[in-house]
């Protein structure tokens, strides 16, 4: 019996060591925006302490990281890849057996739309529709022209300037008396929302999620009454030369966790975690607002998330892994 027990212990130990060895060194792309650096730090901590991986962060950005993963097989993990920006190349990498889509990073996808403050809709529910916006256009005062109404667009040079402009014309907001205003910068756009909210003034314009702004300020996405025509959106609304734009809601942008095939094959348990790990936009908005309020970096916000959102992340891992992560967290 003693021999049998000793053999079992040796086998269990060998199995554990093999698992850690298989995971080995794992490189994780730390992208240069807040949600991505938060998720990268969460992945690093959970992989390191829950799966015994030798996890490390490396600088990343969408195009260079995706290209490097396809051509060089590194880094192992891109935790938040907005895949539409290089979908053809990523799909080719999957087809050639170099990459794998592990799962959806944002369960709602990246979200874009035209928004109004929630306090307006609470007073008049019709303002949650484009028809209601047009009917009440006098609410949205133009800062310089009293004869016009204001729609705050996307900053010049951003991709969303094209889509917001085309949809502005598709819904004939110009004919309804609106003028499309360039906020000048991302800070100008977010600042306009903050200013309106502090004064409880009307505001109508473009924004996206997940963002700290939509975590701080409750906004309502305006319904265009069109549904989503993804084909027309891709073929025309996203193009500068779109000659006949038609109304369509923004389709969600896929935001994926992408891994190298070599990592997927050698660390199936870690892959299972990455496949389960997903954030809703409202939750991420709230986290980003906390991050901004406390001027916290990705590592500090990771600790906040793992401590305060235990009911979320423990659903992504086994009880055994969760126990190890909690123990490591208690030692910080």
TrEMBL record:
Domain ABC-type glycine betaine transport system substrate-binding: from-to ranges: 25-307
Keywords of the record: Signal
GO function term, MF aspect, one: transmembrane transporter activity
Family matches, as CDD domains: PBP2_HisX_like (cd13641)
Pfam families: OpuAC
Signal peptide positions (record): 1-20
InterPro entries: ABC_Gly_betaine_transp_sub-bd
Gene Ontology cellular component list: ATP-binding cassette (ABC) transporter complex
Keyword Signal belongs to the record: yes
Record's keyword annotation contains Signal: yes
Protein name: ABC transporter substrate-binding protein
Species annotation: Photobacterium proteolyticum
Source taxonomy: Bacteria, Pseudomonadati, Pseudomonadota, Gammaproteobacteria, Vibrionales
């Amino acid at each position: 019996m003693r021999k049998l027990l000793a053999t079992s212990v040796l086998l269990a130990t060998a199995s554990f060591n093999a698992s850690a060895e298989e995971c080995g060194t794992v490189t994780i792309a730390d992208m240069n925006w807040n949600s991505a650096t938060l998720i990268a730090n969460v992945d690093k901590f959970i992989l390191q302490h829950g799966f015994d991986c030798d996890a490390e962060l490396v600088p990343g950005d969408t195009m260079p990281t995706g290209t490097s993963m396809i051509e060089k097989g590194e880094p192992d993990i891109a935790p938040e890849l907005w895949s539409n920006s290089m979908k053809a190349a990523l799909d080719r990498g999957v087809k050639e057996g170099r990459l794998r889509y592990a799962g959806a990073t944002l369960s709602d996808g990246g979200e874009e739309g035209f928004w109004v403050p929630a306090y307006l809709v609470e007073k008049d529910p019709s303002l949650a529709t484009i028809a209601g916006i047009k009917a009440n256009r006098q609410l949205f005062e133009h800062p310089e022209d009293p004869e016009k109404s204001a729609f705050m667009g996307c900053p010049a040079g951003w991709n969303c300037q094209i889509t917001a402009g085309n949809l502005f014309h598709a819904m004939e907001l110009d004919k309804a008396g609106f003028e499309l205003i360039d906020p000048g910068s991302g800070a100008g756009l977010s600042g306009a929302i903050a200013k309106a909210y502090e004064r409880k003034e009307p505001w109508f314009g473009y924004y996206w999620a997940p963002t700290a702004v939509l975590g701080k300020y409750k906004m309502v996405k305006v319904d265009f009454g069109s549904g989503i025509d993804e084909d027309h959106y891709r073929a025309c609304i996203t193009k500068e030369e779109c000659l006949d734009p038609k109304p369509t809601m923004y389709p969600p942008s896929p935001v994926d966790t992408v891994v190298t095939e070599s990592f997927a094959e050698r660390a199936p348990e870690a892959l299972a975690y990455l496949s389960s790990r997903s954030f809703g936009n409202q939750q991420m908005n709230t986290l980003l607002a906390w991050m901004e309020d406390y001027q916290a970096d990705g590592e500090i916000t990771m600790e906040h998330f793992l401590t305060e959102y235990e009911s979320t992340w423990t659903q992504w891992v086994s009880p055994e892994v969760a126990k190890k992560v909690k123990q490591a967290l208690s030692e910080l």
